[in-house]
Amino acid sequence: MKYRMLGSTGTSVSNIALGTMGFGTETDEAEAFAILDRFVEAGGNLIDTANVYGGGASEELLGRWFTNRPGDVTDRVVLATKGRFGFGPDMNDAGLSRRNLDRALGGSLRRLGLDTIDLYQLHGFDPLTPVEETLSFLDDAVHAGRIHYIGLSNFTGWQLQLVLSTAKAMGLQLPVTLQPQYSLVSREIEFEIVPAALHSGIGLLPWSPSAGGFLTGKYTRDVLKLDGTRAGADNPMNDHIFGDLARTDQNWATLDAVKEIASEIGATPNQVALSWVTARPGVTAPIVGSRTLAQLEENIAAADLELPVEATAKLDAVSEPTPNDYPYGPFGVKQRDRYVDSSEQAIQELF
């Protein structure tokens, strides 16, 4: 396992994070404990969950694991959780208001059996709550010792910059990480989000780095529904993800390249996909979900895998997103170019 700084902080984390969304639901307690033990034994220390995972089951299971393991094991863990979405139909049981976040954070601390969350992440943007209200609450929570660092999840580029600029102007705690969807078949964050994160020293914690299992090589154009896999589960979100992937010829070409490279270097397609994401600019650690101990072992091996230069170049090329000409295509990009010697940039280059 390798280590990187958590955004611009002084805290080191493993270059692969363990996602626990299915703990307590898809993965029973005995298997989950074995996965957690092995992850820490292998040198992993960044563990990610959320208050709504399994209706609180994931945090509760993690709380029991913390209670049942010695301090020299659990003290290594950098724990991340999230708040924003609610459990019930109440009109205030969601969002980034001071009221809801106070309740969400308190509930997470109780379920986890902890006094402090290392990385508390906003699970999504809230257009109804003033960002100043949200940031003031988070700043208070840091000063009260309830959280150490602030993170974001599923924010767009302009939303990320809004939060950063507002926090700086108010002299409040700044977010240090962002969780976006990012994989070889989902690279659109490179247009705005990655540049914004690099500019401000925000560490990226990509979720679904293997595209929900699409890049593991288990699926074909004819067979997308396999029992015991995410695509085979009866879940509208999974149908959306895999339906979109299956309709794109470029995604299948990318998968073919992943499988070819995996065969050449003696790795699995999943390990190739994870290694590619881990090496992308701005990435701190992709979040890998492991429902079984065997899946975890495969993911751990990817932490130390470095792809050959030619393999990375091949994957970059085959999976490169193809935006319209403006604002992210060649014409739009030229509007933002500038040369040291302006005479090098003739007017015909712009139009």
| Secondary structure: helix percent | 40-55%
CATH architecture of the largest domain: Alpha-Beta Barrel
Q: Which strand-content bin applies to the residues?
A: 5-15%
Question: What is the β-strand count?
Answer: 10
- What integer value in Å does the Rg equal? 21 Å
**Main sheet summary:** 8 strands, parallel
CATH level-3 fold name of the largest domain:
TIM Barrel
Order of helices and strands: EEEHEHHEHEHEHEHEHHHEHHH
Overall 3D shape: globular
Summarize the helices and strands and which ones pair or pack:
Elements: E1 3-5, E2 12-14, E3 17-19, H1 29-41, E4 46-48, H2 57-68, H3 71-74, E5 78-83, H4 98-112, E6 117-122, H5 131-143, E7 147-153, H6 157-170, E8 175-179, H7 193-200, E9 203-204, H8 236-246, H9 249-265, H10 269-278, E10 287-289, H11 293-302, H12 309-319, H13 330-334
Parallel strand pairs: 3-4, 3-10, 4-5, 5-6, 6-7, 7-8, 8-9
Antiparallel strand pairs: 1-2
Task: Give the structure's gist in a few sentences.
With 351 residues, this protein is of the alpha/beta class.
Please tag this protein with its features:
single chain, 351 residues, alpha/beta, TIM Barrel, 2 domains, eight-stranded parallel β-sheet, two-stranded antiparallel sheet, 13 helices, 10 strands, 41% helix, 12% strand, globular
